[in-house]
Automatic annotation (TrEMBL):
Gene3D superfamilies: Spore Coat Polysaccharide Biosynthesis Protein SpsA, Chain A. CDD domains: Glyco_tranf_GTA_type. GO terms for molecular function: glycosyltransferase activity. PANTHER family: GLYCOSYLTRANSFERASE, GLYCOSYLTRANSFERASE EPSH-RELATED. Residues 230-251 are annotated as: Disordered. This is Nucleotide-diphospho-sugar transferase. Residues 38-180 form the Glycosyltransferase 2-like domain. Keywords: Glycosyltransferase, Signal, Transferase. Residues 1-25 form the signal peptide. InterPro entries: Glyco_trans_2-like, Nucleotide-diphossugar_trans. The keyword Repeat does not apply.
Amino acid sequence: MRIIKELLNFLILFISINLFQFVNAEIEIEKETLVKVSIIIPSYNSADYLDRCIEHALNQTLSEIEVIVINDNSTDDTEKVIEKYNNDERFRSISLYPNKGPSVGRNLGIEMAVGEFIGFIDSDDYVDYEFYENLYKLSKDKDIVIGVFVNSTNDTDKYTKHSKFVMYGCVGDSIWRKRFLDKHQIRFIPNVNKGEDIRFRKKAYNSKARIAYGEDNGYKSVNSTKLNNDMKDKLLNNSNDNNDEFGNSAV
């Protein structure tokens, strides 16, 4: 009888542990499905623009988001900017030592993310408040949804639309299904400082991604501080009424 009693106690304990693990797993799954888009922001010495970037990410009209900032060993006031948002439960950050580069930062963000989709924003860029909601509306049965991005500077609210090619870089204009990225082991190549984004996109396309294209409805991802001097002069001096190539930022 003693052996039977011990076996019964062991069986009850075994069932209780497994039930607890099952319930915990269900809670984690439910938590993950609540996040529709995880927004990853790698940052290196961009304190002057990071606050704007985070603010636009957290105040999306799509409420089911999380924002992950990867501080890549910045030496400016990046940590002070991050501290402003630490009490927001949708916000997480991590610091890297020493500097690892944007590819490592983005990859770490992908691993940390619990969202259904992944979005990327460079820390000196920003997105319109409606950007991710408009992309997510088109995401059913898709692995990538591609929106609109424009080139601008931090000196003006004018911009020029980017002419997309069959294969191009800039991962920030799209959302990427996390399960798809994990299944095909799609990540950024570490220690590659140029062209890492186009290689990422190429591998995704070559993995037979199901792709949707968003309409040019005015909601966009804005690439800032990346234009040469000639383009900056055109933006600053251009009258938008005279050239359809140029527009005004809605933010």
